[in-house]
Amino acid sequence: MNDPWLTVPGEQPQGAATSTLAVCFAPTGAHGSTFASWRGLTPEDTTLAFVAPPGRGTRVDEEPVTDMAAYADAVAAGIRELLGGRRLVLIGVSLGALLAYETCRRLLDAGVPVTRLCAVAGQCPGDFHGRGEDVTVEDARAFVAGTGLTDPELLADPEFEEVLLPPVIADLRLAARYDGRRGTVPQVELRAVWATDDPHVPEVTVRRWAEWTRGECTLKSVGGGHYAHQENPAAVITACLDGLPGTRPSRRSVLGAGATAVASTVLGLGAVASAAPAARADAPTGTGGASFDGDPTDPVALAVAMIRQDTSNPGDGAVTLPFARMLQGIFRDAGVGTEIVPTPKDGNVHFFARVPGSGPITKKPLILLGHSDVVPAIGDRWETAPFAAEIKDGKLYGRGSLDMKGVNAAFVAALLRHVREGAAFDRDIVLWSDCDEEQGPYGVRWFLTEHPGKVAAGAVITEGGWVLNQRDGTTPMIASLTCNDKRSLLLRLETASYATHTSKPFSGQAVIRLGEVLDQLGGWRAHIRPNALSRQYFAELAEATTDRPFAEAIRELLAARTDQRRDRAGEAVVRLSETPELHNAMLRTTLAFTSAQSGYYPSIVPGTATAEFRAAFLPGADDPGRIVAELRSLIGNRATLSVVGNPGESERQALDRLRGYLATPDSDYDTDVFRAWQSAVRRTHPGVRATACQFEAVTSAVPFREQNVPVYGMYPFTVNRDMLKRMHGTDEHIGVEALRQGTETVYQLLAGLRTRA
Q1: Residue of 464, 626, 670 lying closest to 529 (CA atoms)
Q2: How many CB atoms are closer than 10 A to CB 675?
Q3: For residue 600, what pLDDT is reported?
Q4: I want to staple 530 with a disulfide (CB 3.0 to 4.6 A). Which of 105, 264, 534, 718 is the partner?
Q5: Cβ-based neighbours of 683, under 8 Å, separated by 6 or more
Q6: 642 and 718 Cβ atoms separated by less than 8 Å
Q7: Predicted local distance difference test score (pLDDT) of residue 3
Q8: Phi, psi of 398 (to 5 degrees)
Q9: What is the pLDDT of residue 252?
């Protein structure tokens, strides 16, 4: 069946035999063929209908419509003729989300029920105010190039441009003239679908769709970029159509959707859309159970139970409710008060346990801050199952064993040992398990913003400094407590040539050029510029090490007064170190390369290739803007280097924000908590130096430091180079006996805060 505004492609069920009609609205400049891959993937009882607007596809000779009201009226009329008593789902991609939204308004006003509205990778109606300037051909070219709608070399073809640009111009004018604030907010179930790699419509934008329905709004995340409906169709179809009553999924859809995880968040209703929902008993669970039957003062048993809770964070926050419930049971059994605080993501929660201080309390609480989420364990082969928590050869293996469930276990076991002994502290001791430290919007900064005053911290201890051994690998040498973090900047590299058939390769292909530039950047080294904290640490290290050449190199580094001498000595320090990657990161700006992408079809040499990497900066050392300029000068015109900031940020704004973070003062180490840690190290590691230090990574400390709350970082157990290299990597592990000794250090630290009877 064909309608002037709707097309139902052949070879799919139609009519009364189907129970659902899914009407699909294409993105800017496109028509129904953009959903061609959806055929055969939709549920067996669902008919697809594609909106066929004038000016493209089979209607290319007609004048495009650039008025949103006229567009929505025409589609709504076509749907009323086609619907035939079936449930109706409207699915819009990018600009199509706005078209679907306006069509939904008209259908509901006409008394036609809409079962579900789906906005995929689309900006919200409130983002448009009808004040756009006239759209030009250059605007359309820039849009096509910026969104990757086609290759730049194809766009340069005049004949191709004549076909592609007119519908793009029409759709851009449609959006420019649109004012989404006009009209009532509909009562409709809404699915807002976020593509996790979409550079144009970030998650924060997708979440705002909750404000544009008076019904339930659910966020779904799928893998893919702005055109995820083509890159990952099965996952997008599942995100849009799952949960409809009586729907039978197609076999192809079930198999295809398994390749991509879909995370769900109920955002709420109408005016209270931003309120966090209550934790649900049927929230997804990890691999482990929600109870713990062992001795809660045994850090190894605790760490095993924690690792077996799969709290992988896919990028938008982890499901931590089962983990929190396990902790809740442990602390309740010990008579300690607890609280679980949900976030707007379903199953994503913060956990708190509070041991009250005794007597007249004059000191603010000490927060033991751990994060329950871990990075995923996919893509690389593990020798042990990442969530089995296997103990082998005196080592505990598992994702999160080092970062940072081992530390969490030490915190919990040490604190509950004091509770079991009936200890009284001179302040409240609060254990806080954060849910979104690795990635996601609902971590510590969100909590402190949404719940001001709920955690009035006097000091915080979280992940950070290391305990290192002498060259013999067994004798402890130095323990550090970090008082500031590095901060990083995401950078994107792009090379461009032209796309062609693989039968005609040429020199200067984009992928080859990208590899050449990456190789050059991989050999770049920033100057050695230790800041005050790094200098203090290395001065102590020179006294602690029994390796004379290493100590001499450190002293030469600290005495150097020119870049040349400092660089030469610093390279010697790194070369002679037993943990060279760690000490290198504590001395200079570093680059870490995280991803590379190119190609989209096996018989096409792609015209572009991109890579992303992070530059990590020491506070008080290099200026980020100067480093970016230096890297651009190094690569010249062979590639484009851009700063990836927050949504809507300019490069200057992103750099200024980073400079603000880097200007956050070091935590004061003239405090009773710092001295209690030094005393604890002396008790558990006699003769080992205990010093303040610069952390080489980023933690959740900054929001506290911005409030002048001292934050200290510790991994209280000894580590070696292999353990450090496996952090966020394969076969992550910690030493079993080192964990027990590290827990004793935490216990002795807390003992220094007990009241004197």
Answers
A1: 626
A2: 14
A3: 86
A4: 534
A5: 745, 748
A6: no
A7: 52
A8: 155, 150
A9: 39
pLDDT of residue 143: 61
Residues 6 or more apart whose Cβ sits within 8 Å of residue 63: 54, 55
Mean pLDDT of the chain: 86
The pLDDT, as a whole number, for residue 256 is 36
Spatial separation of the C-alpha atoms in residues 586 and 569, rounded to whole Å: 14
Two tokens, residue 365: 């609480």
* Strand pairing report for 263-269 and 216-222: antiparallel
**What is the Cα–Cα distance from 110 to 104, expressed in whole angstroms?**
10
- What are 44's two structure tokens? 């067996």
Residue 287 has pLDDT above 80, yes or no: no
- Distance between CA atoms of 185 and 182, rounded to whole angstroms? 9
CA distance 159 to 154: 9
Would you tell me how many other CB atoms lie within 10 Å of the CB of residue 79?
A: 25
CA angle, 538 then 544 then 547, to 5°: 95
Quote the tokens at residue 306. Answer: 């924690």
Structure tokens at 342: 């949900």
CA 182 to chain centre: 34
Please report, for the chain, how many H helices and E strands are present, in that order: 24, 25
Distances (CA, A) of 253 to 7, 11, 37, 120: 22, 16, 11, 18
In single-letter form, the type of residue at position 453 comes to G
Q: Which residues pair with 212 in a beta bridge?
A: none
| DSSP track, 256-287 | HHTTS--EEEEEEEGGGTTSPPPPPTTS---S
What are the structure tokens assigned to 660, written together?
């603000």
At residue 285, does pLDDT exceed 50? no
- For 104-130, the pLDDT digits (tens) are 999 999 999 999 999 999 988 888 876
CB 614 within 8 A of CB 491: yes
The label of the residue with tokens 């009877």 reads 757
Q: What is the pLDDT of residue 379?
A: 74
Tell me what the mean pLDDT of segment 568-591 comes to: 96
Task: Sheet with 395-397: list strands edge to edge.
Answer: 391-392, 395-397, 733-735
Per-residue b/e over 499-536, b at no fewer than 16 CB within 10 Å? bbeeeeeeeebbbbbbbebbeebeeeebebbbbebbeb
Query: Which whole-number Å values give the CA distances from 697 to 666, 668, 702, in the listed order?
Result: 14, 19, 12
Q: Tell me the per-residue pLDDT of 455-494, one tens digit each, with 9 for 90 and over.
A: 889 999 999 999 999 999 999 999 999 999 999 999 999 9
Provide the greatest CA pair distance for the chain.
91
Distance of CA 606 to the CA centre of its chain: 28
**Torsion over CA: 80, 82, 85, 86 (sign):** negative
